[in-house]
Amino acid sequence: MSGARASRQDLPLLLVGTDHRSSPLELRERVAYAGEAAEGLLVHLLARPEVGEAALVSTCNRTEAYVEPREDEAAYRAVVELAFATRAPELADQGRLYVKRGRDAAHHLMAVAGGLESMVLGEPEILGQVKQAAALADAVGTSGTLLRRLFRSALKAGSRARAETGISTGAVSLGYATVELAKAVFTRLEEARVLVVGAGETGRMVTRNLLEKGAVRLTVTNRTAARAQEFLAEFPSALSHPYEERVRAVAAADLVVVATGAEEPVLTAGHLEAAMVKRSGRPLLVVDLGVPRNVDPAAARLGNVFLHHIDSLETLIQRNLKRRREEVPRVEEILEEELDLLLAWYRGMEAEPVIARLQKQAERVRRQEVSAVLGQFPAETHEQLDRLTRSLVRTILHHPSKRLRNGNGEEMLPHLALVTELFQLDEEEG
Amino acid sequence: MTPLELFLSAAVVLLPLAYLLAAAAYGRVFFTGDRRAERLAPGVLLASLALHLAYLAALTVKLRHFPAATIAEGLSVVALAVGLTYALVEWRGRERSTGFWIVSVIFFVQLLASVLRRPEAAHESEVLRSAVFAAHAFLALMAYAAFVMAAAYGFLFLELYRELKSGLFSLFYDKLPPLEVLERMMAGALHVGWIALTGAVGIGAAWAYRLYGARWASDPIILLTFATWALYGLALLLRRAQRWQGRQTAVVCLAGLCAILVSLVVVNFVVGDFHGFPGAEGS
């Protein structure tokens, strides 16, 4: 077991998890929880007396259990046993689990939501997955005041990170890099005519990304008809074009994605030159994803032909990743801000019992004093007197209560102690 | 010195400075993505345009005609026309990425206008107060404003084209609208400019022939205008015939504007006014 112990005034929060950095896929897939399995785990965790609240973030890259421990050590053992040891005992034995507590655990969840812990820095899907985790714990009834607020803070931090920094900007995969290039050339992806030469997995992957981002006018051409039919089964809106007449199809396209296993170029500079004659000067973007290259590199010299092969896409991806890395300090600032707000909220929660006791005591004293003098006033003024004294007490306590609620973290703790001592609130409670 | 003259003297210095400030703010938006500068830049530009409008209004009062009789006056009107057009485009499209380049051109044109300015004197010429002059000057200045816009978009087109060709993706790739949009804006501005210039040349030629006979054809500005009209017309013709693509058109837009500006400066020092018809006063 590792990780720093939570300080007395820290959040009562325990995180036990594993991710792509600490475990290989063979272990991670064994502890991936979905649907009923995730619900079952949460119910079992909450059934343990040492666990107050529980939530689970489970994706292909991580499984993390967040609990509010009533007894720290026992809660840790319960999580390890129920979530990890039953499915993959090696995780605990080989020290592949990380454990974080209090502020560190909250910061970790915010970093996950912000994409800082993802395999691809800043990837956007994780925010939705954290949202699902919060919704699941809510639906099963295993999250309470603390975890609900924690996930809300994490989701806010994640959303802010994406809106206020460039942590998720720029394409970082071949498919999205193709989309990004197309958007730099064409006014609207919806209007661009896309030709996919080669119906294999790479071509399909890029096609998925293009369709997701709005491309609709799609044609495929493949050396074998059977593979083209498979492509059409996956993308029914696409049209098929005979492979032998591919140059004609190039002339009619705006974006050509070439991904075949051919050893020789399937599009030569001569092919593209012939196609450009028929294109009346419109730009042509050609993305060659083949290795060895499927498009003759000499075609890059043709006017209005933008030829990019796998290395230039990789340059684009690395540049975007570098920019994302440069955004990490700005994201960290946002996480710290949200963490401070979360801790201030939690410490405000600590002030609530003190404020409640103070108000209760003041009300008791008010009643005592009013009862003692009530007989000296005419009956018709009793209600007025009661209202006046209530208002007086409320006004006197308003500012001290507000200050205690909104006080800044640990520096407020001595004040809470002083108020308790001055007004003898411990005795009051007793 | 009257308050009006004082304002004109101050504005002629302040205007390039105001546009320089606006260009700096837009530059910060383009190069750093600074959000504060993004909020500030349109305000600085609008303030500069307001000052510019006030300057030209004051000049009109002082000269008692639309201030388009000298090259300096014409350039200043062109700068304002480009600024107003850009402000409208930005307001409609919420697109500020091209602001730095357009406002830089406006700064340069207004700087040239301020440098070439000579002390204003009211013209008594009836020619300058006629409706034909107003139509001719309006179309000519509109044409030059459009050519300035076409050159600015042409420059941006060429930069983005170069980055997309080379695969060395940098600022232009990140910040600019798609290549097709830049080409459309450049070609659109070129069309508008050429049509307006055709109108200006037609009206001006007919009018000058009636006033001055055949002498008008030897005027250097007329010769320059015909050359410009022919160059841009050829570019449009070749585009229409699908012989030329965006790149060639962009080069012509840039070369054309450079030629116009250099010629105007030279003509300004040789002739002084826009037109120098022999024997024609106050032209």
Shape of chain A: elongated
Mean pLDDT of chain A: 89
CA-atom Rg of chain B in angstroms: 19 Å
- Sketch the topology of chain B as an H/E string, one letter per element: HHHHHHHHHH
- Secondary-structure content class of chain A: alpha/beta
Assembly state of the chains shown: heterodimer
The spatial strand order of the largest sheet of chain A comes to 7-6-5-8-9-10
Percent of sequence in beta strands of chain B: under 5%
Biggest β-sheet of chain B, characterized?
Answer: none
CATH homologous superfamily identity of the largest domain in chain A: Glutamyl-tRNA reductase, N-terminal domain
- Which protein chains make the most extensive interface, counting residues with beta carbons within 8 Å of the other chain's beta carbons? A-B, 18 and 17 residues
State the order of secondary-structure elements of chain A, H for helix, E for strand. Answer: EHHEEHHEHHHHEHEHEHEHEEHHHH
Give the total of domains of chain B.
2
- The CATH class designation of the largest domain in chain A is Alpha Beta
Helix/sheet category of chain B: mainly alpha
Radius of gyration based on Cα positions of chain A: 32 Å
Taking pLDDT < 50 over at least 5 consecutive residues as the criterion, the unreliable ranges of chain B are 277-283
Helix content of chain B: over 70%
Number of discrete helical segments of chain A: 16
Describe the structure.
- The complex is a heterodimer of chains A (430) and B (283).
- Chain A is of the alpha/beta class.
- Chain A folds into three domains: 14-168, Glutamyl-tRNA reductase, N-terminal domain (Beta Polymerase, domain 2, 2-Layer Sandwich); 174-303, NAD(P)-binding Rossmann-like Domain (Rossmann fold); 351-429, no CATH class.
- Chain A has 16 helices and ten strands.
- In chain A, the strands form two sheets. Chain A has a six-stranded parallel β-sheet with strand order 7-6-5-8-9-10, with helices on both faces. In chain A, strands 2-3-1-4 form a four-stranded antiparallel β-sheet, sandwiched between helices.
- In chain A, helix 6 (125-140) packs antiparallel against helix 7 (145-164) and helix 13 (310-374) packs antiparallel against helix 14 (382-406).
- The two termini of chain A are 39 Å apart.
- With 283 residues, chain B is mostly helical.
- Chain B has two domains: 1-119; 127-277, no CATH class.
- Chain B is flat.
- The model of chain B is unreliable at 277-283 (pLDDT under 50).
- Chain A binds chain B through residues 181, 183-187, 280-281, 283, 300, 303-304, 306, 308, 312, 315-316, 319, and chain B through 160, 164-165, 167, 169, 173, 178-181, 184, 239, 242, 244-247.
